[in-house]
């Protein structure tokens, strides 16, 4: 193992997650949805990798594979240099305490019948850490995410959306994890609250040395929080680059379209921008196009795009794009 | 020029177990002919409720339109009963609405063609034959290929973006004077959002319709809207031309909203986001001072002493409801 | 309420004004929804009276339920026997009062047995899905298709009649409804992110099922159980009426209707009075269930 590798907290090697489509009484397998189709990337310690893409592109599935909520069809998930892709639930126990998860829906991700204290302390209880320091730890977690410990006995519906998301973050931090998978943590929140949560996540990362996988569909939010950004389309990563680089020099035609579709809150700039409106819609992941998945919507596609799958190639500085025309 | 529709001092309250919710509390605005308007605000600010109130689509109980006038074609729409024929003749035909959820806005057991022709037959007294031809034409306009055969398709055979296109087609089919789009792109992806917004702009231009885009996303309206109303806790806090609102915002809430969203291409090293402190107001037991006061970082003594500040002209068509702005007006 | 609507001028003290919603008790809201409707309250009163009558039966009944005065048989209502006497000279009112015990014991124990088994099976089926789901659900389909009467006859002929066997027969026969309801509710509850989050934390399946899912799936079950008690009482009365239920001389309302209907022309009170008792109690449980359903409905949270 080289020095380079040892600093990777997570490394995905050719990860594949196929969901079977079954049909009829005998649950005959009639096809499969290639939700994640040969994805590789790594996240270094203390780094934030952003994962963007539209709904159904497999970004959430990728996150859940790393959390081992799914057992991947193929490929390796290296967590601190150990492959966790084939582990069973017993072997995963210690891994689970060093990973945290924050979910999109601050209403659905907290059990409505538990108090805030129980919700936040739950990971500690599960991992046998309900010892002497438990009450102090829960109080400390409350303060860490900017909540008043006097609200500990409240149940989720007595909190506002932003406060609930803070509870979710506190729960993810309870066992002092190294890696946190943030799955659309701000998209369900009000605009004025999003910035509070983004700032909180950024502060916590600096304070606690956390590593984030930040999954979201909003490219401007992802670029703001991430060091590097990976763009997914129909189960594959089509471009990965430094945040700034991706914005200034997008290479893949899909990334370009995605960037131009994001509205900018400034009418003067907006009226001048040329907007590449993509034709058609995202094809079904059960029946993806052959070759490059983006070829039916691409305006620079040629013959080989329809037959061959472009691999990610490095164009320098760690900027990689999967397009023949680059 | 008299506006096409003019809402005056509209108040819609909800009576709940926890208390009286003043969802819309004295809102006035105008919609001119062939104009695109943005109504911006966070969830619970009353933007949707004020639109639903225009069409009297508020369920009572718990909701009730307490007072106000909605002047349209020289008539006060609030004088009509919610279920009256006069009101039904306005809904869909004169003022049409598109909702956020494309999954539930279409009836799943009727074909797309049936849902398109239905309102044409009811409102425009078309024969089934002409209605069908018109429906095909509409489907072509919204960019649905093979329109003739797609008339027999059911909503579940369409994707989310396609369904929202069909909703636009249905809304525009009777050639309404005003089209209200309530968060039309919240449930769809950004690239689809761009398609839908272009389509809507194209359609209202073609049919000379006024468009109201209700949204929480300031970016969505920046490109299209001519005038913008910003709502906060049931009231309009700032209104004006798009350039006034985006380039020269005066109300601390609008300023905060523009500062707290990350700009495209901006990284955390370049600028830390400036959030608006505190929480969005809960509408129960609202203070009668300025509702933004608990979150405002430039409040004056007068803000604490006086009731809610009125909307005052600060130049051009730019109105602001903020004592600081009103006092320091030259 | 109308006063509040125009109450614009009263300034709220900004220092005391909190940004979060005022705390309110969920229990208090439920109670106010419940007592805000007349029928559930009537239902509750009937059920409470029933329970009191069952507990204090020996104090309330004028005579022991099985005390026969053959000389005074088939008497019309009088000051001595308010509801008359039956063909063996037993006091009808006393038998109705003691019959409430049978009804309540059977109603509660059958519902408890069927609900516990049904809930566990429904939870397992919905949580694990796949083959387990299909096996359990097909078994429930078979159970639902099997006539309750036949099942009771089968149990009675195998184990003999009697209170315990009636409870077993009805208990098995009533599993399907709570099981299917539970299965449906769990299917939707388990979609919630908090279940996903519990799995990501490494919580065991057993704990997820009973700590995260069950409490959130329980409210509709409570409603079904309440209405179920009424249904069980009705079913037991039916079986006793047919003579395959509780063995005489134990006082049961169904058995009393059976005894009395032979004299329906001459002495209608004998059959009608236990019939009215059955009707009132079943009505009471149904109304109570309806009230609970509204009170527990989270969609009404904040609205009422």
Structure description:
The complex is a heterotrimer of chains A (326), B (330) and C (304). Chain A is α/β, with parallel strands linked by helices. Helices cover 33% and strands 24% of the residues of chain A. In chain A, helix 4 crosses helix 5 and helix 4 packs parallel to helix 6 (161-173). Chain B is globular, with a radius of gyration of 21 Å. The model of chain B has no long low-confidence stretch (mean pLDDT 87). Chain C has a single domain, classed as MetI-like (MetI-like fold, Orthogonal Bundle), CATH 1.10.3720. Chain C has helices spanning 2-5, 26-35, 38-55, 57-60, 92-128, 130-145, 148-159, 163-173, 176-189, 193-201, 205-241, 253-261, 269-296. The relative contact order of chain C is 0.15. Residues 1-19 of chain C have low confidence and may be disordered.
Question: Given the helix and strand composition of chain B, which structural class is it?
Answer: alpha/beta
Q: CATH topology of the largest domain in chain A, anyone?
A: Rossmann fold
Average residue-wise pLDDT of chain B: 87
CATH first level of the largest domain in chain A: which class?
Answer: Alpha Beta
> Which residues of chain A form runs of ≥5 with pLDDT under 50?
1-6
Structurally, how many domains make up the residues of chain A? 2
How much of the sequence of chain B is in beta strands? 15-25%
What is the N-to-C order of secondary-structure elements of chain B (H for helix, E for strand)? EEEHEEHEHHHHHEHEHEEHHHEEH
Largest sheet of chain B: 8 strands, mixed
What structural class do the secondary elements of chain A suggest? Answer: alpha/beta
- State the CATH superfamily name of the largest domain in chain A: P-loop containing nucleotide triphosphate hydrolases
